[in-house]
Amino acid sequence: MNLDLIVSNILNPPILFFFLGMFAVWVKSDLEIPAPIPKLFSLYLLLAIGFKGGVELSRSGITQDVLLTMLAAIVMASIVPVYSFFLLRWKLDPYNAAAIAATYGSISAVTFITAGSFLGQLNIDYDGYMVAALALMESPAIIVGLVLVNVFGSGGGNRDEEKKTEWGEVLREAFLNGSVLLLVGSVIIGLLTGENGWTKLKPFTQDMFYGALTFFLLDMGLVAAKQIKDLKKTGVFLIAFALLMPLGNAALSLPIAYVIQMSQGDALLFAVLCASASYIAVPAAMRMTVPEANPSLYISTALAVTFPFNIIVGIPLYLSAINLFWS
């Protein structure tokens, strides 16, 4: 792997502010960000990236490349939880295995945005419709995870009557939770308004974007550092899983990207989507529908291990592999 890519990725203001947040926790600084502000920036980032993706989609149109990318995204989001579940069952009960498997089948929008920033630094182009792939990968993992719980929980679908899954609520959470709704809605609005909408919103959705991302990653550094203490509860097995699963998922995604002839920039974003883990949408759904699972397991592995690994090492590593095979 080219070490220059890692250095270039680390010497990126948003990444450095992520480390600053972690450092603040380790030295027990009183640095805190009031809770509503990270939520506001999270919503802003989803709106901005969704809107930009919609505009890019209006420019490119619904082509064969777009449809193939969307299909690949849905397939990966559906199969990753399945093989992850059976790997995790080696050490965990079916509830925790299904919750963690769903977490790793879904995606991290912040990792995706960071990868986009990394590509921007290197002047590597990517297609805006990759945002639509991001939106499509949020929900399937939740549904697959809950199917696994119902099939394998308590020896095969014998959960207590009061704990049976309410599928209406599951589907509502999977497709209409706030993050998914805002992201998909922004894509549609960008698609409908096109260039005219882009001109009007550009100062808000483009010029402010990296400042908001930087501040959001500062908060993520604070949160990730606080979650690290929970790793003691997860044990070596889950830490190894959280480090190896992104590599395995990225390795599986790259041949798919190569076969359907994604560009290098698109291939990196696709690999990052497959390699990342959700720490917002899926945990919210699992807390509601699988109370038997321990949140500290699936949140700490996704946020304190996989997220930093991907933004520090994973993104440049995946690009090195792409440069090797696409050249």
From TrEMBL:
This is Sodium-dependent bicarbonate transport family permease. It comes from Romeriopsis navalis LEGE 11480. The keyword Membrane applies. Keywords: Membrane, Transmembrane, Transmembrane helix. InterPro entries: Sbt_1. Signal peptide: none annotated. The chain crosses the membrane at residues 6-27, 39-55, 67-88, 95-119, 131-153, 174-193, 208-225, 237-261, 267-285, 297-319.
